Amino acid sequence: MARGRAVSAFGMQEQTEDVRALFGHSTAVFAAFTGPAHAVETANPAFLSTIGEDRTHLDPLLDEVYRTGEPRTGRDVRVVLGTGPHAREAFFDLTCEPRRDATGDVAGVTVIGVETTQVKHAQRLMAEHRALLEQIARQAPLTEVLDGMARCIEELAPEDVLVSVLLAEPDGLHLRHGAAPSLPAFYNEAIDGIATGEGVGSCGTAAHRREPVIVTDIATDPFWDDFRHLAEQAGLGACWSTPILARDGGLLGTFAMYHRAPRVPQDTDLALIRVFAGTAALAIERHHTEQAKQAAEARLAEAMRAEQELRADAEHRATAAAELAAQLRAAAAEQARTPHPEHCQLGGRFGCTAVAEVKVADSWGDAAWGCAAHVEEALIHVRSVFIASEELGGLVAYRNR
Which UniProt keywords apply (predicted)? Predict the structure, then answer.
């Protein structure tokens, strides 16, 4: 039991570390402004490195507090940090209080607040993750779940990333396309069905090793010798792949994150991989379970159809046997008057005009004359019937006719 608790605690610790890596810690900011132009009198480093860079949404709040002398609160005030391709948005909850001089007039504004970016990202991740779990629970198609998961990660990742999921074939020797909404179609088609093995790109190697494989520069890594031309054509510079494993350790597939340029993964990247690799495993295992269930149901339905067909055939044979037995009994009664009738006596309810050629009898002593076709039917359907025709030499002569 102690070992079980230790494993559980370790799992919870991993989850906590992933959450911290994804969302970091909230940043507290403080600043004091003077005059109607809101000149910074004092501010902590966090304010200067965040809101101090972009006061677009803060200045209107400062103006209102300075003008009215009333405190104001700003929720999720948006700030753009950085410029160009590295720019990112952040959000803050801010409280703005008027600062008064000795005469009671407003001389400036004090701002205190806390960053809420992490909270918003966490809420979004939880909402997206919940939606994926709901899709899995309602047995949405696996391709739909994996495609939605890939798009979700691409949107949540702090930097440009392209996500790919490959599914392992039952023998674990090849990987098939699962989802890759942002990778070029020609690239997805080219790697569909790649083998698992050492040195087969990032994904083939990760599947073979059953452990993550991080290639930071596709242009120089030997794992990509056979696929480098494809990566160049697709504009890919780095690829980090993680195996998707079942609860019993079996290979389900791989989960890969591509980048346009060579790059080393950050803690946030690895945390996203761990969080969603588990979700992908759940979706794939649920899909396999459903496939096995459908296959079992199909086999059962086929067995039931076969049983029904056999039962119907048996009933048909029983009915035919009963009718033929009745005809034998009727023919036996007729034998007293006509030892060798002219026409077949085994023609059923509609009769038969064929010449009576062969005499058959059963173990109860009933006998009848019939044509070759109806005699053969009697031999098949009525138990203990044999050929009794002395003229034709018995059963052996009939079989060899």
Answer: Coiled coil
Q: Give the pLDDT of residue 394.
A: 44
User: In the structure encoding, which two tokens stand for residue 30, read together?
Assistant: 């403080």
At residue 308, does pLDDT exceed 50? yes
Distance of CA 63 to the CA centre of its chain: 53
Residue with tokens 């009939």: 398
Please say if the pLDDT value at position 328 is more than 80. Answer: no
Q: CA quadruple 285, 268, 58, 112: dihedral positive or negative?
A: positive
Look up residue 399 and give its two tokens.
């079989």
Task: Give the C-alpha separation, 277 to 121, whole Å.
Answer: 19
Per DSSP, the chain holds a count of helices (H) and strands (E) of: 11, 14
Q: Which helix (H) or strand (E) holds 343?
A: none
Q: d(Cα 241, Cα 218) in Å, to the nearest integer?
A: 13
Q: Read off the CATH number of the domain in which 29 is found.
A: 3.30.450.20
**What is the residue whose two structure tokens read 């919940």?**
130
> How many structural domains are present in the chain?
3
Amino acid in position 87: A
Distances (CA, A) of 134 to 145, 275, 281, 340, 352: 10, 16, 15, 81, 69
- 250 in the same domain as 176: yes
Backbone φ and ψ of 253, nearest 5°: 165, -160
CB 363 within 8 A of CB 378: no
Q: For residues 131 and 66, state if they share a domain.
A: no
**Whether this model's pTM surpasses 0.70:** no
H helices within 224-266, ranges in order? 228-234
- Position 140, amino acid: A
H helices of 52-102, in order, are: 59-68
| Cα→Cα distances 81→13, 55, 221, 310, Å | 31, 11, 34, 76
DSSP single-letter state for residue 26: -
By the 10 Å C-beta count (0-12 exposed, 13-18 middle, 19+ buried), 96 is classed as buried
CA distances from 145 to 165, 251, 294 (A): 11, 19, 19
Q: Amino acid identity of 50? A: T
Q: Do 153 and 275 sit in the same domain of this protein?
A: yes
Closest to 238 (Cα-Cα) out of 251, 253, 224: 224
Cα Rg of the chain (Å, integer) = 42
Distance (Å) of CA 220 to CA 165, 195, 236? 24, 21, 12
Q: What percent of the chain has pLDDT over 70?
A: 84
Distance, CA of 278 to CA of 283 (rounded, Å): 9
Q: What are the CA-CA distances from residue 1 to residues 5, 6, 158, 259, 380 (Å)?
A: 6, 9, 40, 44, 69
